[in-house]
Design goal:
Layout lengths: L3 E3 L29 E2 L3 E2 L10 H4 L4 H5 L3 E2 L3 H14 L5 E4 L12 H12 L3 E6 L18 E5 L5 H7 L6 H13 L3 E6 L5 H11 L5 E4 L13 H15 L3 E3 L12 E3 L7
Helix pairs in contact: 3-4, 7-8
The protein binds iron/sulfur cluster.
The site of iron/sulfur cluster has 9 residues, from loops.
Length: 273
């Protein structure tokens, strides 16, 4: 049987205005996560050892890790561009964020304002964060039929997380946030990327599958475990587990060469109820 990889756009509204800079279409691998994104801050206080963002932004890592600051003119620019999207009839889901975390440990009041501006202009939104229950402050802004809440998880173990993500919320706190959003009827998803330890990622799915609507499965690149991990076996074990538990999942491009023949890998599914 032929391998089938079907990219499906949620509702056809994930198009971007090409000249827009603040609400933009992420290129490359980031595009697998969302058709649209925005980054309110520069820097991030989570200090993840595997973070690639300082390199992408050509920013000094120490400065990046010092904490996040609102980008100059960000909210004004967001308002202007949101208006243009609305006028063009584009109302896709905008993800926060690829180059920072919307619930970093500093002042995140601009995140709330960002979500409000997006909603006022009929755009959907999704937050991807390692800030855990810090995000609950904004829970009431999320709409069941438009928005999503997501978290990255690499382990259930606090010590492991402290080693790799020293400033982020502990794993149990991230799970508590996912559970709460789920209880409120908000679509939830988890990014299992980077996969730092295969057994840990499998354990996360076993632990949290009841309140996570979608799993995005990736690998680790340019890290010590990259060369010593059997990614083919990981891909197969993860698919088997997700199928056993009956949970929706997407295998990212890096692992797609290991997909079993005939496997249907849906890149875009609606990330809202
Ligand atoms: S939370 Fe994201 S942006 Fe912030 S340091 Fe970690 S990987 Fe980088």
């Amino acid at each position: 049987m032929q391998r089938q990889i079907i990219p499906i756009h949620d509702d056809g509204s994930g198009q971007a205005i090409s000249s827009a800079k603040t609400i933009y279409a992420p290129a490359g691998q980031a595009g697998e996560y969302s058709p649209l994104a925005t980054n309110p801050y520069r820097g991030c206080g989570h200090g993840c050892a595997y973070c690639y963002v300082p390199k992408v932004l050509r920013m000094d890592r120490a400065e990046f890790d010092q904490g996040a600051t609102l980008r100059p003119g960000y909210l004004d620019s967001l308002r202007r561009e949101a208006k243009r999207y609305q006028a063009a009839g584009l109302h896709g889901q905008v993800m926060l964020s690829f180059t920072t975390d919307p619930y970093h440990p500093g002042d995140t009041s601009a995140t709330r304002e960002t979500l409000q501006i997006l909603a006022e202009h009929d755009l959907g939104f999704c937050t991807l964060t390692k800030g855990g229950t810090r995000a609950l402050r904004d829970l009431s802004l999320f709409r069941r039929d438009r928005d999503a809440f997501a978290s990255t998880l690499t382990s259930l173990d606090d010590a492991f997380s402290l080693k790799w993500e020293r400033g982020a919320a502990p794993p149990a706190d991230r799970l508590a946030a996912l559970k709460r959003f789920h209880e409120k009827g908000i679509f939830t998803w988890v990014s299992l990327e980077p996969t730092l330890d295969v057994e840990s990622s499998l354990a996360i799915v076993r632990e949290a599958h009841a309140y996570v609507d979608l799993w995005k499965i990736g690998r680790a690149n340019y890290l010590p475990m990259t060369g010593r991990t059997d990614w083919e076996s990981y891909t197969h074990r993860m698919i088997e587990l997700c199928e056993q538990l009956g949970v929706a999942h997407y295998v990212k491009k890096d692992l797609q060469k290991y997909l079993p023949d005939g496997y249907v890998n849906l890149m875009r599914v609606p990330q809202h109820h």
